[in-house]
UniProtKB/TrEMBL annotation, chains A, B:
<dbReference type="InterPro" id="IPR016182">
    <property type="entry name" value="Cu_amine_oxidase_N-reg"/>
</dbReference>
<keyword id="KW-0801">TPQ</keyword>
<dbReference type="Pfam" id="PF02727">
    <property type="entry name" value="Cu_amine_oxidN2"/>
</dbReference>
<keyword id="KW-0186">Copper</keyword>
<feature type="domain" description="Copper amine oxidase catalytic">
    <location>
        <begin position="252"/>
        <end position="655"/>
    </location>
</feature>
<dbReference type="GO" id="GO:0048038">
    <property type="term" value="F:quinone binding"/>
</dbReference>
<dbReference type="InterPro" id="IPR015798">
    <property type="entry name" value="Cu_amine_oxidase_C"/>
</dbReference>
<feature type="active site" description="Schiff-base intermediate with substrate; via topaquinone">
    <location>
        <position position="414"/>
    </location>
</feature>
<dbReference type="Pfam" id="PF01179">
    <property type="entry name" value="Cu_amine_oxid"/>
</dbReference>
<dbReference type="GO" id="GO:0005507">
    <property type="term" value="F:copper ion binding"/>
</dbReference>
<dbReference type="InterPro" id="IPR015800">
    <property type="entry name" value="Cu_amine_oxidase_N2"/>
</dbReference>
<feature type="modified residue" description="2',4',5'-topaquinone">
    <location>
        <position position="414"/>
    </location>
</feature>
<keyword id="KW-1015">Disulfide bond</keyword>
<feature type="domain" description="Copper amine oxidase N2-terminal">
    <location>
        <begin position="21"/>
        <end position="109"/>
    </location>
</feature>
<dbReference type="InterPro" id="IPR036460">
    <property type="entry name" value="Cu_amine_oxidase_C_sf"/>
</dbReference>
<dbReference type="InterPro" id="IPR000269">
    <property type="entry name" value="Cu_amine_oxidase"/>
</dbReference>
<dbReference type="GO" id="GO:0008131">
    <property type="term" value="F:primary methylamine oxidase activity"/>
</dbReference>
Length: 694, 694
């Protein structure tokens, strides 16, 4: 890492703290101040490309005492407000990262990074690259050879270049071309992924010009063909205007006549504290991670210090150039915050909805208001618990209510719906729904390949993996926690176990930072424990257990760039000793990364993780063997990861949820004719609730 | 199998067909007729105990042509209506099963079963056994030694005896004793599982008397103590009256102003056809399985011939007598139909609900009406699919609606909530929610054991498994189907795969009936295919794939009775060649069974299952390491098994679902003060739906 011009702005008199809490996301004013302070380091006419301007979170050593003081009502210590800025000098490869101290009004550090450290894409750049690729004379010439019908619109999806170690020191984009339905040129929402082309221009990001035009293989091997006119496949549209819509779906409304059960407290311009059913936490939002939850507590007891999706990789299975470079890190390469949808009422959630806004920065360093990037709402999650006393016929039943903190991102063709879900039993679920349009490429008629499925005539959807890493910074009754795992072992047949039915639970404590795997055959279950806090009923250490669905790890070769770069994708769980700034499992800069800067490297420090300040990196994912049913847009594939209390409470924490009855729920009896009698008429009966058959 | 008196009632003139469809569950009249015909075989005063009187489903060779004729509007062939009856001659071990032909008004067969074949429990018997155990002088004497406070109620939970091969040819119950809160004797719903006693009477089921009183070990080994007065633990109640209920949960109502989207067609007295969002199927209900789905089709295309939960086993991990015999087969030993809750409006489901009733038979052979044993309703399942065109900002989003067919059973201390859930993407989910009260036993103060968790002072909840078997009789575009599995294999690094990122899918066809396991490391995925029906887009065989969460198989020793009896619990999937009457994975009679009569035995016929009429037995389950949070009643543990189309449709079948917008969904904006502006005022904005950040 070479450094130039560690510079300082002229020391200004300290100004009053800008934000009202150290964890509030940065404000528009703070973005402007940060940019001004960076600009002041350079000659007046210097042109910048800002890749990210976000909150530089306080060091934990500072923030923990602050939070403790806050929760115990003591005087709050002062913490300097800081921002993190990374930027290029425009039309150069000079990539910098800086820490700006807004309280002291100075640039604390400004470091030029590299070589082979590249910043993420940004909207301005992506649109520029599209334009450059499509206006390039060489690309135009190739497109002309296709002899497309008059007025056919050709589109360009710029892809992060990926890495293969071959002439890829330059920061570049690999562009994939498609066209809209040639027979419906006016349809701007035509699904161009049904018309992939075999032309793939490469654009460099210093001079911003096409430096190479790759032709894509469309057969069973690496061979490529000259661009040429060919048979046009039919369209395959997903927009409602092009469907013969079902007419027999009746509305289903979620009505909360007394409003929602959660409370939102605004903190300054950008901060939000959410309280619901004994849970409390702060919500942050940034360019890279999108939603971040801080200081998660239940009935005042500390459980998590920080929660956020840390990274994801989507490697594809086609071995052939240029497709072998398709391995997207959507958070590090693009940003879950930068790609967040503007959620609209009645479209993305049902019920009584609260939206959170955010402010990010444009490439020009201007504040970019992001409206409705997070929605907060409750949902019914079915029966929470039930028991019927068969002797008296008395049933006790409660429903499970969930609080959902949801954000949706669009990364070119694909969508992810991400949500934190809290329930009344002290459980936290992180859910990802994968949807959107599978990435497509052209394939010759009559050809089939074992690394993908033909989802439309002439269109191949290559199999791929989605591997996610959720970063969990626990603080279970405090910051000194440990990771253990339980395993079930059959007892040997013996005089003590004469019938061979006995089995026991064995607990193993993880000693050093490392990567670990699940084992279904022993029901291996990972738990985060606080040895110093004991359950009053049975004296066991209080904790939370991790329920994550097992998944196929990174399939790519251990020597491949995919494996080296996705440092989290080879184990179900990584545990590391906490260090400030270690937030992203794949490393801070994933664009054309080389590996060695992420969680695998940190775990290799082999630090003690027993009753220390530890961090868990929880991986989950899916192997997406594509189906025709996944096109032209795929039904959501849902993955849930759960964190559940284990001997943390002294009984079922949902025991005090009010019973589920008709006065409260006001359901309706459907006659076969779908007539609806007045709800009122049935309250008495409903209130009786279930009785057993006796 | 010894047989006596294969008898026939005097041949009566054929009477008119009673039910209007061969798959309609039997009526009260058919129960009466069946009983009369059985009685006519015996002397007038003979006393019977009827264990089950249910529909004897037509042989498939008869029913398939009937269904084909039905769907093609051709004349329906005649099928004799038959019932299955199993019964004891009261106060004997003479257990019989009979087939009664109601159309011909004769008993077709009547066979005495045994030895070591025992019928299930029934309500009358369970209550009788409770009474006998508690009124036994020896048991009373043991209870007296406890010196319980005046008025303390002692309760008896009879458990199916299980099998261990030691003096267990007799049909018996192992009873476990508890008491209600001694300090609140008037509370009939006191949670007696918080007060387990160490006295365990054994009742025989011929003479119905206590034949042995076992004392339960309460320490770390097999040693038992004399009954004696001891310290009384505090109560731990679950009923709402005993809770300090939360007061900040606001109502959440599901309102369907136009009614539900499903159509129910009554067929005769007991049949129901349900149609919803292109799905159609018949619902049956019987003593053993509870809900059964027949002839499941989507847009008229056949997918499944029959679906039902086939069996479950709950083996416990305590090696010590009498606890080692705790291994419940709740379907075969008790009956998911017989134990079904009477569901009440507003308690167990939200929205517009339709209930199904059933008629079962009492031990006396009387019809037992079962009201509201199944509820049918729709629920919102979040976003179904979404894509935003970042170039135009246009978002297309639909919600996923599910149709839920739900039944809830109470088996003494425990509850299971079972549901079939259909969605608009052609997917079928089977969900089980495990709740209720964990089985408890006494443990001495200061003692800890590795096979259970102390959940309350003096109360141990032993670790246990729940292993379920869902029987899937597929008919995917016809009855000749095959089972295959896909696996993902990395390509070797080579000139063809120079970067080591390539991987391929390999499909293996299962040749012979057998048990098979999942493999997460290769993403092994089982698929049911019809080789003779090809996808129009890619020519692949149409099919459905199986997504079932992996689970720890039966932990008990392969030589143990638990392993021998639970013939399904050792593999994720069993595939067998169809044979009439093979419906229950653990065998027809699980009570004190010895094994050898279930799916493992059938699979061992090693019949060809390639493009044949096959049956899938899909296992799933959970290893329940108990937590304090699971007491006094446990939060639902949810398990889902999914069946998803794979190249069955020519595109995403949910593409034609109407878009999700505010006119339809009528959500509400929550202000921080929870005021609710009129929905109308926001329709215009909502209708715009999401736009991207561009």
């Amino acid at each position: 890492m070479s450094t130039d011009q560690i510079s300082y702005a002229p020391m200004a008199a300290p100004v009053k703290q800008i934000a009202t809490h150290p964890l509030c996301p940065i404000t528009a004013a703070e973005i402007k101040q940060s940019v001004d302070l960076i600009r002041s380091l350079y000659p007046a006419k210097t042109d910048f490309v800002f890749k990210a301007i976000t909150l530089e979170e306080p060091q934990k050593a500072q923030l923990v005492p602050y939070l403790d003081a806050e929760h115990s009502g003591r005087k709050l210590p002062h913490i300097d407000r800081k921002t993190f800025v990374c930027y290029y000098l425009r039309n150069t490869d000079k990539f910098h990262e800086a820490i700006v101290n807004l309280f002291q009004q100075r640039v604390e550090s400004n470091v030029r990074l590299g070589p082979n450290i590249h910043g993420p894409g940004d909207w301005e750049e992506i649109l520029l690259v599209e334009k450059i690729a499509l206006e390039d004379e060489g690309v135009k010439a190739e497109i002309a050879k296709l002899d497309l019908p008059q007025g056919t619109a050709v589109l360009c999806d710029p892809w992060i270049y990926g890495s293969d170690g071959i002439n890829d020191d330059l920061r570049m984009y690999q562009c994939f071309l498609y066209m809209r339905d040639p027979n419906d040129p006016s349809n701007l929402d035509s699904n161009h992924y049904a018309f992939p082309l075999a032309i793939s221009p490469v654009v460099d990001c210093v001079d911003f010009k096409v430096i190479r035009i790759d032709m894509c293989p469309t057969g069973t091997d690496h061979a490529t063909k000259e661009a040429q006119a060919s048979w046009l496949p039919p369209p395959n549209e997903y927009t409602p205007e092009h469907q013969n819509l079902r007419t027999d779906l009746k509305p289903l409304n979620v009505v909360q006549p007394e409003g929602a059960s959660f409370k939102v407290t605004k903190v300054g311009e950008t901060g939000e504290i959410i309280e619901w059913q004994k849970w409390s936490f702060r919500v942050g939002f940034n360019q890279r991670e999108g939603m971040v939850l801080y200081d998660v507590r239940y009935a005042g007891r500390s459980i998590f210090y920080r929660l956020a999706l840390s990274d994801m990789i989507i490697p594809y299975g086609d071995p052939r150039a240029p497709f072998h470079k398709k391995a997207a890190f959507d958070l590090g390469d693009a940003g879950a915050g930068a790609m967040a949808n503007n959620l609209k009422l009645g479209c993305d959630c049902l019920g009584s909805i609260h939206y959170l806004d955010a402010v990010l920065a444009t490439a020009r360093g201007e504040p970019m208001p992001m409206e409705n990037v997070v929605c907060v709402h409750e949902q019914d999650a079915g029966i929470g618990w039930k028991h019927t006393n068969y002797r008296t016929g008395k049933a006790a039943v409660v429903r499970s209510r969930e609080l959902v903190i949801q954000s949706i991102i669009t990364v070119a063709n694909y969508e992810y719906i991400m949500a934190f879900m809290f329930n009344q039993a002290g459980e936290l679920t992180y859910e990802v729904r994968a949807t959107g349009i599978v990435s497509t490429q052209p394939i010759d008629e009559g050809v089939d390949v074992p690394w993908g499925t033909i989802v439309h005539p002439g269109v191949l959807a290559v199999h791929h993996q989605h591997i996610f890493s959720l970063r969990v910074d626990p603080a279970i009754d405090g910051h000194a926690n440990r990771l253990v795992y339980d395993e079930i072992h059959p007892m040997p047949v013996s005089d003590f176990n004469p019938h061979g039915v006995g089995y026991t639970v064995a607990e193993t404590t993880v000693q050093k930072s490392t990567g670990l795997d699940t084992n279904t055959d022993t029901a291996r279950t990972f738990k985060i424990l606080n040895e110093s806090s004991r359950n009053p009923v049975n004296g066991k250490a209080v904790g939370y257990k991790i329920h994550a669905p097992p998944f196929q790890k990174m399939v790519a070769d251990p020597e491949s760039f995919n494996h080296k770069r996705a440092e989290f994708a080879d184990h179900n769980v990584y545990v590391t000793r906490y260090r400030d700034g270690e937030l992203y499992a794949g490393g801070k800069y994933t664009n054309q990364s080389r590996g060695g800067a992420g969680v695998r490297a940190w775990a290799n420090r082999k630090e003690s993780v027993v009753d220390e300040d530890i961090v868990l990196w929880l991986q989950f994912g899916l192997q997406h063997v594509t189906r025709v049913e996944d096109f032209p847009v795929m039904p959501c594939e849902v993955i849930k990861l759960q964190l559940k209390p284990v001997n943390f409470f002294d009984k079922n924490p949902a025991l005090d949820v009010p019973p589920s009855n008709q006065e409260f729920n006001r359901s309706t009896l459907v006659t076969e004719q779908h007539k609806q009698p007045a709800v009122e008429g049935r309250v008495g009966e409903g209130a009786a609730c279930c009785s057993s058959k006796l």
